[in-house]
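Give me the fold.
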Amino acid sequence: MTRLVLAAVAAVAALAPGCGPQPEPPYVPVSGRVTRDGAPLTEGRVVFVPSDGAAPRSIPVVKGRFAGEARAGKNVVQVHALKEVPNPDREMARIEPTVGVSLVAERFGHDSRDVREVTEAGPNEFDIAVSEK
């Protein structure tokens, strides 16, 4: 009888609201503008890195605009943009004639501390200003 009571209590506890696993936040639409030193960023990527450890979302920037999806909740926002230049290392230039040079200061890229709240209700329209230095 005791086992039956314990089993019933366990079943009720498992079904009680808030006791089971919580659903993960959804991915929702985000969009906006990116400027570099006051002008639209020609091309690059905006990366939304969720604070809960979920996989980041990388969204292309074209003519200063981006549109895609990011996870609802707090996200660190990074901006990445490269230009190809001739490889200054003559030895390596034979193998790799060009190298990518960042157009954006590292504090806007991997070192970013720009946290934005992405909401399920939206709108999630963001203006992001970066600089080369």
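The chain is about 15% helix and 45% strand.
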